[in-house]
Amino acid sequence: MVGADEIKAESRPVGRFAPSPTGLLHRGSLYAAVGSFLHARYRGGRWSLRIEDLDPPREQPGSAQTIIDTLAAFGLDWDGEIIWQSRRHSLYADAIEQLRADQRVFCCACSRRDLAGVGVHREPCRRPYEVGLEHAIRLRVADGFVALDDALQGRYEQDLAIEVGDVVLQRRDGYYAYQLAVVVDDAELQVSEVVRGADLLNSTPRQIFLQRQLDLTTPSYLHLPVLLDADGNKLSKSRYAPAIEPAQACRELRLMLRLLGQDVVSAATPSALLAEAVAGFDPNALPRVAQIADDEVVVREPSKAQ
User: If you write DSSP's letter for every residue of 181-239 in order, what string do you get?
Assistant: First the structure.
């Protein structure tokens, strides 16, 4: 018989934060981290940390450990061991073999040049596959829409066949693709809610489609607004967004709370500040669109076209 404590534990949400070590944490990544942390913890849930080190050529040496140290300095304490995607290749290979057995994947030798001007990739390939050719492994997508009801952004749907095409699961260079790894890992870790930036909303329908092909449970999704700089550009590593400084942890956390529409607390340490924020967290106050202009926060309503 399952005890009451076990039932209660099973009903707790499981969230996660999954940075890639291609650079240091900036305000945009901190925003996603704090948002997912609060959303999981205010209901007594677990919050896991996963390092998405799938793409060694793009990684910056030492950035993974710096990310870990920065999160700890900001009081964002994770549950359990850190998950490293680079150590989970066998799980991704097993998923591909399952899909291969169900005839849901195929080898694709098409290069970017082959697909230039074509739009999205749909089978049959432009370049026929022959044994020995360098190739990717793609997931066949079906015709029709895949939809989700995002907890913040609302209804979102995508016609994968027209808008995305057959999804790469393993690249020509042998590295496993993000879309495969995130689906396998979220299921294996029993993640029940995915709280992340709205720049990943576009990837969600293909992840849901893959979950269905692998007979996996689909978590709930909440996509936080992307943070913009004073010029209206997304804060990102590619645009050299400045790294957050642990010495300014409380100041940065208070800014994140304002951006998340939450009451700003006055605790003197990061851990105490987050504890107060968890206790007073209101998910209904989360804004759909937010902008940073220097350290001033401007919250804007989404346009009707969004």
Answer: HHHHHHHHTT--EEEEEGGGGGGHHHHHHHHHHTT-PPPEEEEEPPPB-TTSPBP-TTT
Residue 109: Cβ-neighbour burial (10 angstroms; 0-12, 13-18, 19+):
middle
State the maximum Cα–Cα separation within the chain, in Å, rounded to a whole number. Answer: 64
Q: What are the residue ranges spanned by the domains of the chain? A: 4-86+227-299
- Give the pLDDT confidence score for residue 9 in this predicted structure: 47
CA 69 – CA 84 distance, rounded (Å): 15
Superfamily of domain 4-86+227-299: HUPs (3.40.50.620)
Q: Over the stretch 144-170, which tens digit does the pLDDT of each residue have?
A: 999 999 999 999 999 999 999 999 999
- Rounded alpha-carbon distances, angstroms, from residue 254 to 34, 85, 120, 263, 297: 11, 31, 43, 9, 11
Q: What is this structure's pTM?
A: 0.89
Span 13-29, pLDDT tens digits: 999 999 999 988 989 89
* Alpha-carbon distances, residue 189 vs 79, 289, 290 (angstroms): 12, 30, 31
